[in-house]
Amino acid sequence: MLPYVYRVTKYDPADRDDHGHYTDAEETVSDHGQVEEAYLQAVESFAADTGIDRLAVREPQVPSLAHFGIEWPLDGFGLNGLFPTGLAGFYDGAEVPLDIGLELVRAMLRDSGAWCRLEAEGAFAVHVGWDQYLYVGSVRSCEDALARTRALGLFPERINASPYDMEVDTEGVQRPGDDDFWTGLRWAVAACRAGILEETYIEGASRWHRLTRDTIDTIRAGIAPRARLAVWPDLSTDIDAVLDALPTEGLVECVWQDKDGWIRSAVADESEFAEMAAQVAEADAAALLPVSAVERVPVCTAVMPDSDGVVRARWRTEPTPSDRNWAFLKTLHRGEIVTGKVTQIADFLVTFVDIGGFEAVINIPELSWRPFNHPSEVVAVGQEISAEILDVDPIRERVSLSLKALHEDPMPLLAGQIGQTIVGRVTKLVPYGVFVRIEEKENGFEGMVHNSELAEKSSDDPQLAVHVGDALLVKILDVDPVRRRIALSHRQAVSADKDEPGA
To answer: Rounded CA gap, 10 and 133, in Å?
Structure first.
């Protein structure tokens, strides 16, 4: 906030009632003449006193659905000839020399349709309000400019702050349109989650782009500086279905791709539906989008950063669920321990865990070091657990957890039993051998006895005498914690037992 702020008007403070309202007959529109020039000279004087010769355009706006000013907007919003690139030069952060800044002030005094804040960050600001109210802020008291302004027939008054100061909301989510965003957008297009991009390059003015894997880089290169982006699902080629979905009344926005490949949009109410439908009927693809802010929820949003990667645009997008997920995932790191509640065990045996409103997953191999047949043997829906983060993928919005990482692997302890003979319980018969549980617990480790280790090689079918549930004498041959394998031998255990003294 600048320390010196002045309201500059053509209205004499003596002509105000007890409520501070102007009561005389001065027109509330620009005279396009001597008084307008006085305003511009006053701004020039304040800039000179502050030592400012360049200004930055901030939060530029043009009318969208309606224009509520007194004077109807001009063609080009009064900006014709001010920017070498036309309206494309009127963007947030665009720096202009003071003379162009003064012409922007003129356009705003004439209520031509375009509006912006003009600022030199931390030093100077010019805001044009309704009814010919002008607000100038400076880091200096600007005594010479005040005297000059009074001599011009205007009335400067010291106030605490401009009512048009931008209130920057630093809370919540603001996703930058950086490399990660565009990488995620490429993935979303490939996954058929996204298809069109809305680029708001000026408040009230948008461009639409059809997204494909081949066009994303070209589209990105042409995005306006500091533009706001909203990603939507793809257009539908079923034009009849789109038109059948038109409501009976209310405002809707229709986006369509015409036969020449151009993406067009129109906002219409029931009185204009027939005209809009006639245009859309010849389109290659189309979609209806709600106008209401409550219903208008894109896939994700972003604001384009400057070339150094910093987001300096002060306007914000309304965060979507995907944006909030992105913000949450930015706080997570591999190796971090999180606590959450098991929400479901999917049919494909993946366990989902709610960690702060986001569902992370635990894949089968990461549930337990010990064997199990179903995840419900390890965890239960509603159970609160702690787990280690294995991976965070903000592109696909995935977090992988490991429950077993918080526990020591008990299998290496079995390595000390290599060579020992024990009695285990047969749990399963397979064509190449049998599995035997070698620990006396339901989730005890199992080893495999290959057919060649079941009996003497002379036996025609070594499995004939073995059944599930049988107690079987086995010798532990090897323990491989990496491959999760334990090799057993019944034949060697029996032979060793026979060789024991007194056998």
So the answer is: 8
Residue 6 in 3-state DSSP? strand
For CA atoms 81, 85, 86, 92, the dihedral sign is negative
Q: pLDDT tier at 456 (50, 70, 90 boundaries)?
A: low
Exposure letters 360-373 (e unless 16+ CB within 10 A, then b):
bebeeebbbbbeee
Give one DSSP letter per residue of 394-432, joined into a string. TTTTEEEEESGGGS--SHHHHGGGTT-EEEEEEEEEETT
Residue 170 has pLDDT above 80, yes or no: no
Which secondary structure element, helix H or strand E, spans residue 143, and what is its range? helix 143-151
pLDDT at residue 181 in the model: 96
Residue type, 67: H
Answer yes or no: are the C-beta atoms of 89 and 200 closer than 8 Å. Answer: no
Mean pLDDT of all residues in 289-318? 91
Of 9, 5, 2, 4, which is closest to residue 130 (Cα–Cα)? 9
Task: Kindly report the number of other CB atoms within 10 A of residue 432's CB atom.
Answer: 11
Structure token pair of residue 5: 């702020």
CA atoms of 492 and 496, how far apart (whole Å): 6
Token couple for 52: 């400012």
Residue in 301, 306, 317, 303 with CA at minimum distance from that of residue 94? 306
Alpha helices in 133-178 (DSSP H): 143-151
Answer for the pair 99, 63: CB distance below 8 angstroms, yes or no.
no
Closest CA to 177 of 318, 307, 298: 307
Separation between Cα atoms, residue 279 and residue 481, nearest integer Å = 67
Residue 458 has pLDDT above 50, yes or no: no
CA distance from start to end of the chain: 97
pLDDT at 206 over 50: yes
Give residue 455's pLDDT.
Answer: 73
Check if the beta carbon of residue 184 is closer than 8 Å to that of residue 395.
yes
- pTM of this structure: 0.82
- Could you tell me which of 117, 32, 114, 29 has the C-alpha nearest to residue 76? 114
CA 406 to chain CA centroid, Å, is 31
Q: Are 185 and 211 in contact (CB under 8 A)?
A: yes
Tell me how crowded residue 290 is: count the other CB atoms within 10 A of its CB.
14
DSSP 223: P
Which of 165-169, 287-291, 307-311, 408-412 has the lowest average pLDDT? Answer: 165-169
pLDDT of residue 222: 95
Structure tokens belonging to residue 27: 């027109």
pLDDT of 496 strictly over 80: no
